[in-house]
Amino acid sequence: MVSIKESDEALVALGVRLRQARLGRDETMQLFAQRIGVSVPTLRAMEQGASSVQIGHWVRALWALDRLPDLAAVLAQSASPLDRARQYEAPRRHRASRRPA
Checking CA distances to 55, which of 18, 32, 84, 101 falls within 20 to 30 Å? Predict the structure, then answer.
């Protein structure tokens, strides 16, 4: 199980890589924020690893950096036979238990 500290560290590292990629393209915060449709404070939060940033903003940032295919690797399909068999099973319906009135 991943601790909150580990997930926070991962977000900070992701933010650092986003900043490096933006600077590598020689784009100001204002220009990059405009390209991905967010405010400069939101981009700053992304680069600082804030957990409150919506994933849609990250998707647009990956697109702007030509890295959108990398998103598929986040939850890549497992190659195990059991997992492949599960993907073909019909989804099970789950219902709440009946409560007495």
Answer: 84
What does the domain layout of the chain look like in residue ranges? 4-86
Rounded CA Rg of the chain:
19
| pLDDT at res. 99 | 73
Could you tell me the mean pLDDT of each successive run of 10 residues in the chain, 101 residues long? Answer: 85 96 96 98 97 96 94 75 60 72 61
Are 61 and 70 a contacting pair, CB within 8 Å? no
* Yes or no: domain 4-86 corresponds to CATH 1.10.260.40: yes
